[in-house]
Amino acid sequence: MRLMVRGLAVVLLIFIQLSAFAQEIKVASGFVKDSVALGEPVSYYLTARYPERVMALFPDSTFKFSPFEFNSKKFFPTKTVDGISYDSAVYTLSTFEIDPTQYLSLPVYVTTARDCTAFESTRDSIFLIEQIKIPAGDTLAIKNLELKSNTLYERVRMQFNTVILMIVLGVLLVAAIIVWIIFGKRIIRHFRIKRLEKQFQKFIAVFTEQIEDATKTFSREKTERALSTWKKYQEQLERKPYTKLTTREIVRMDQDKALEESLSAVDKSIYGNQPVAAEPLQRLKVIAEQRFVKKIEQLRHG
Known about the structure:
Elements: H1 2-23, E1 26-31, E2 35-36, E3 42-51, E4 55-57, E5 68-81, E6 84-95, E7 101-104, E8 107-111, E9 116-120, E10 124-128, H2 139-143, H3 162-216, H4 220-238, H5 247-254, H6 257-271, H7 278-301
Parallel strand pairs: 2-10
Antiparallel strand pairs: 1-3, 3-6, 4-8, 5-6, 7-10, 8-9
């Protein structure tokens, strides 16, 4: 019986101490104004008065401020006078709920060496400002309004997306670099061959016509013109100065017996003013074809 009485006395003593402790702590909060528009920031203050020997913790950004959303928090330094501490903070909140009246209360957590207790502030209310007001008598009329459809095409200007453009250009640039690294030599070789083929076809057409003209009616000028055409083409094909060299210098450079005989025969015709047969010029044409084919093979397998 004595043990039971002692137990009840201990429980009663603890209850009295807790009640006294709770009376030492005062929490207050509220909105700084009585109304707010949808999405508009509004300030909400929270204050706490508590003994110096304990610690008070205020809600931070992780706290659920429903029906409001947290924007920011401004905290003021603790002030202590005669063993009593004072803390305060101002929260900037906003709401996107459409309830006409909205409520909020925030807790302050007081910690001691043994536990942590939440002290809830008094709930405060704020009114939502209506952005669109509909007269009570117009509700039925709005429901009965006749809706008109418009099926005409309305052109909408496309928004230029610079980010996507830069990404696409970057991808294309990287792809072009990769292709050039892998196929660059082949591409260059292909276009060089095409250019040489085009030059050769043009030379053959002009040189063949000049051979026929010099054979029909001989003249030194026609023969010189045909020889000059051949030299210019060979100079372009082989990158050698044929147009600036004499026959003897060309023969010494090329070491080609067939070329030596053909050029000598053409020179006799020009400087001896003797009609030249088509054969020496035809041999020069064959030599040009052979060297063209050799050049193409070098490019393809080089």
